[in-house]
Description:
The protein is of the alpha+beta class. The chain is about 50% helix and about 5% strand.
Amino acid sequence: HPTMFGxxxxxxxxxxxxxxxADSVLTPATLRTRAKSGCEYSTYLSNPTSxxxxxxxxxxxGKEKPKPLPFGVDSKGEQTPIPVKTPAPTPLKIKKxxxxxxxxxxxxxxxxxxxMSHPSAGAMAVLWKLGDSLEMVQKEILDLRNVPDKPIKLIxxxxxxxxxxxxxxxxxLEGIDEVVTAELKSGRTxxxxxxxxxTALAEETHELVHVLSLELKNRLSNSGPEVKLAWKxxxxxxxPNRVLKEGTKHEFRKLEPGETVPGSxxxxxxxxxxxxxxxxGIGILLYFKMLRFLGxxxxxxxxxxxxxxxxxxxxxxxxxxxxxxxxxxxxxxxAVCDTYQAVCAQASGCGTCSISAAGVASGDGCVAxxxxxxxxxxxxxxxxxxxxxLIANLVMGWQHWKIExxxxxxxxxxxxxxxxxxxxxxDAVDPDEWQKFFSQFGHVAYVTVALTNxxxxxxxxxxxxxxxxxxxxxxxxxxxxxxxxxxxxxxxxLYNKLSFLQKRSLGLVQQRxxxxxxxAAIQKEAVDGKFVATKVFIVFETEESQRRCLQQMTVGTIxxxxxxxxxxRKHLIFRGTNVLDICxxxxxTDVIWENLETPFKHQVIEQTVTNTLSLGIVAxxxxxxxxxxxxxxxxxxxxxxxxxxxxxxxxLKAINEQEEHLTxxxxxxxLLLKLVVLRWMTTGFIVLLxxxxxxxxxxxxxKKIWAILLADALTTPCLRLLxxxxxxxxxxFSKKAETQExxxxxxxxxxxxxxxxxxxxxxxxxxxxxxxxxFPQGLFVTAVAFFVSYWVDMYCLFRLWKQPxxxxxxxxxxARVQISLVLLAHTFVTHHFFRGWPFDGYEPTxxxxxxxxxxxxxxxxxxxxxxxxxxxxxxxxxxxxxxxxYAIVNIAAVSVFAVYYFGHSFKYGVHKLIWGSYVSVGxxxxxxxxxxPGIQTYVPMVSHKSxxxxxxxxxxQKLDTEHICFTMKSAEEYDRDNLVNSNAFxxxxxxxxxxxxxxxxxxxxxxxxxxxxxxxxxxxxATIHEWERETMLKTKKVLRGGIEEVGAMGKMGGVKxxxxxxxxxxxxxxxxxxxxxxxxxENYEL
Length: 1086
């Protein structure tokens, strides 16, 4: 290392040479590249116009900071940069200075007395003070060696070492003028000797920092895992954090995973406004809005249903007043009928009929029938509830549209600025060509060309997961390279000895064998695969440019597929031949990059097969339940229902995973359909179908409905809240981990699906309305379920679950359609209930035996013809009229639903096929993309369920890492999680071929952004001089046209350029300084 205060080259070196050498040596980093300068001391006197000459004449030398020259003088007297040699690595052994570290109080006292008696004490005091400060820093550095071998302590020691290193650098700057002043006033010989001592001390301290840094790094890698670090990882990467927007008191911005900002905090469970959930995506916001809206709605509707509750609980309905039920019971007010009468069901006549308190008829040929009738008012209440729910669903749709508009205007995301090209030319992989074409609509900020490398990305993601598991099992006290070293032939021999089931486990031998298979597959795909453009994402600088592009270029799917020009102008046709199929792009985190190459035809066939398979499995389960019940085994049927509810969701999720969707929203919508069919079948239709019709108004059957709703209200939310699997991993299994990474794997958060949350919500409202005619208080239970789910899911989102991808409102749209279907099911089943009431299985024949009316068995009460308005013999006039009304309502409801939903969907589909469809939402904002805080771009990446963060799949040199959807601490960490840098290719693939394997994402900075970066250069005066700052600004102005390349490469040490800082006062928090130009001083070449 060069000395802190300048190495004496010759005894007759002039003061100027010493001065400039001292000034140029500031930190261990800049020492390796900083040039030295020197000149004759007489130059100061012979050239009084120079900086130092004027300082000498004015007597201000030492009182102001000199401006050093960037060159030195070699042995021949020529001005030239002096090369600096990089020292060889020093072994991890530190020589402890006893005279510094064990100096007792008496020795210090002697030293002080000696200093006080020195003839030039005043002049030398500054040097002595500097030396004492250096000794103190060195002592504190040495003290860091004594920290215990615990990761949390070692990391703290590394942070303290960085602070001490900064203090050492600061002493370098502070000592420059002091050395010069002391040398002038005290005599060169004495000052030179002291300077030699300080030089050696500074040299030793810098070396000490370097060696101790390596020692702490090694100790940290060899130390065991630390639970505190895992919890820090959990809070930083798994849980969502927020920070106040600058200039506001109540508006927050969601931080990306890994992003650290002073003043950040976890989202508050009770103090987070629901509108703030828009930071997680419109789909999440609408889910919580819908929960709250439906909760309030069912409370209101429950108030209307209170009329039926009061009636069923009165003697007007049941003469016994539901005496069979406890006085305080949730079942009171349901349609439980405990009043019977005995009638004759024998054509030859009956004896004296009587009825017991339990409802059992006695007498030859006598049977018991229920004597409970509903009133027309009960039916009208149900009709009113259905009508109110229909209106509320329409209002909710309008409200959701309004929320989407407001969210779009309030929160700027990449989707607001972007378009997606669905049919690019296969060879159009150059982003510059796309940038030039779309620049006709406005400045293009980013272009991402996605290639057909989905299979390669999937293989490489699985390979990374396998390597991670190998590190878990084989990574104790080993480097990453050592973790995967093994004898391939020996491992294959061991693998072949395993049984079929053993080969499916995740042991060390099996994982190594899978790694070999993946390496071979990756090599083959990399060499033989053909990678062409499949999708292109264009990000404009303004919303207005995006909307102008969509308005002018949106065409139908058919014209785009056949390249029918039509009314399109020539400049809107790519390459003069391709009529592009473009649309508004989804959110970056919504894109599934490995599936973008999947053709539309393949998606249709694939989803048809999986949906048919799913529906077939659900139907088979329903048939088995029904068959078991009909076989006289209701207990077994109930067990089978429970098993189906537990196992089938997992099976349907596995089937859904086989579908290749382009976005997470589309994938979740498909899962939503499958889960809805399953849950409605098992909690509604199956329960109704397998019942004994004669028990419809019995306590036993209605209790089943109560049990289902109670589980939705309490049991299921409590299980989500307890999260036993993840908590067991964090609090128990994590402590058995042998590596920190394996311990962190237990802190990734619980996987969850937004589609599943929507299906739980619609299932609850389905069960409630499905059985509302006989269990009206179920509406109140549903309200409790919604409010409990609201707060439990809020807690889980902020404290337990993995952070979800930002999705649009498509799931909410699907949920509203399902609610319309729930209303249809409600009117259908209510018609069935009112038509078959009282479900005793008997109807009068109209004849009499011995003056007693004769009854006969009938199965008409169990029929499910929802459009049947015929009158049954058991019906009263009022009951027949209600059945007629409901039959008409059902016919009308089906007609309206078919026309409104299917007709609208058909019209929209045809219009999209022929003319295309684009409707702008709200007004275009004036904010520029590059100045929006926290905004993302379309960075190709691939996710794996066992990895906490996605893996990047593009070169990062051409983009700003601040636009990635997560934040890393350094460029090295981004490179570590970048598949481009993977060693899977093992040298068999050239660098040029490797670059062609991955999609391309390139940034195009606007003039305004480049000007802002030039004006917002942050110079750390502890590491860079004023002349370097001036040189930097001049050079950057010259290289303005190529600054984006400089920014991406990050080859300038000591300079930080703040990126994306908004000029608008609302977005000042974006002024967090970027480190993209702070990669290392060894490449300081400008």
